[in-house]
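[Automated response] Your request has been received and processed.

Submitted sequence:
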Amino acid sequence: MATTSSFYTLFESASGFGIFSVLENEEIGSLIQEVQLSMGDLARFQRIVKLVAFHPFDSAEDALENINAVSEHEMTEGLRNFIESNLPKGKKSTKSPLGVIEPTLATAIQENLGVPCRSDETIREIIRGIRQHFTSFVKPLAGGLLEQSQLGLGHSYSRTKVKFNPNRADNMVIQSIALLDQMDKDVNTFAMRVKEWYSWHFPELKQVVPDNFMFARCASFIKDKSELTDDKLDGLVEIVGDEDVAKKVIKAAKSSMGMDTSEADMLNIIIFTDRMISLAQYRNQLFSYLEEKMATVAPNLSTLIGETVAARLIQKAGSLMSLAKAPASTVQILGAEKALFRALKTKGNTPKYGLIYHSSFIGRASAKNKGRISRYLANKCSIASRIDSFIDEPTNAYGEQLRDQVEERLKFYDTGAAPRKNADVMSAVAGSLRALTGDGEDSGDKKSKKDKKNKKEKKEKKDKKRKAEEDVEEPVEEPVAEKAEKKKKKKSKE
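Generated structure:
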């Protein structure tokens, strides 16, 4: 294999950095083929790749710091010194570039050190070979020490990547809405069981008090219908909220056709009823907690479509950041994946909406405009989620204006009144927020200074241009020979 010049390759491992020298072939394609053929043969691979230097990490903390910097495409001081001390300097450095597997890290090295870098298919194949034969180049890491360092670094790296931010706790929202949905099903089931069980004793109560939660509270208060007298009227009024209804309950108890129960049976019924009531009360507390959390995590999205629908969108997307990255077309049908794939398979009509169908805006739109308003609402939800995800100070000002825009769009479909433009609305909200925080004056001063500077530069350019034109228009002296010829012609005419 005829070789021309060599280049270098940076290899990052769990135990340290390594720089390898690579004998480059005349054609890149043949070098890739040579590396691939020598993967299983160490002696053949060592003819192509040579170890120049290896810099081991001092400790586990040092390894974690360096690998974190590499993952963020940044250079540490140790990596800078290692590269500078082991690569040729001066004119030789331009002939021997440094191969880096990550293009963004290669850009950072090139900008900070001025070292020419490359990141292509050849580098990836060489790094693959180095990783396979690394313990043969660095003998002290053989015998399982490299695997131990990789395992320890993997654990510590994973722990540092799991970050907790109380202001962006969208995981709490995801868990809360999942628990809320499950509790809705369970409370419903338990309420029906309470109604069926207690109705054997007092069947007329479900006709007077149809609400499940109120029925359970009444059952827990009444217990044995034979003990219900007019003395308990005030307690019943407090539960049902209406004196006439409470009187009907007492009247129905006196003439009830239900069966009598023993004390043990009634005790079990009341214990289960109390559990169901406490579960329903906790469900209300959980919903209040979800509302508070959504006001912190996604205030604009929850203001636009409500806390419950917004939380379900975040849950379906996986996180607020994932929802912010999703396009509006994905947000529109989020939650209707089964219908979408069924429509694609059968070549039918794709669904118009998913989870956003539960928003009040879709219900208020007419049948022919449901698809249009769902597309428009998904667009606004996408904007709101991106604002919530990247804004520094949580505010629901954008969400209120986005909600007003959806209202205007509904009116436009009904009456034809032209809605406001989105750019005007967003700029107005941004201006009002700047005015509230006091940044408006500073930005105005900066703008005025910038305008003055631009005017001054324009004036200077005009002056230079005018001066150049004047220099061009100045009379140029005629040569002496031409002057003499003109005088002779004049004399001959005379």
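Summary generated for your ticket: Residues 1-5, 440-448, 472-481 have pLDDT under 50 and may be disordered. Residues 95 and 247 are 99 Å apart (CA to CA).
If you did not submit this request, please reply to this message.
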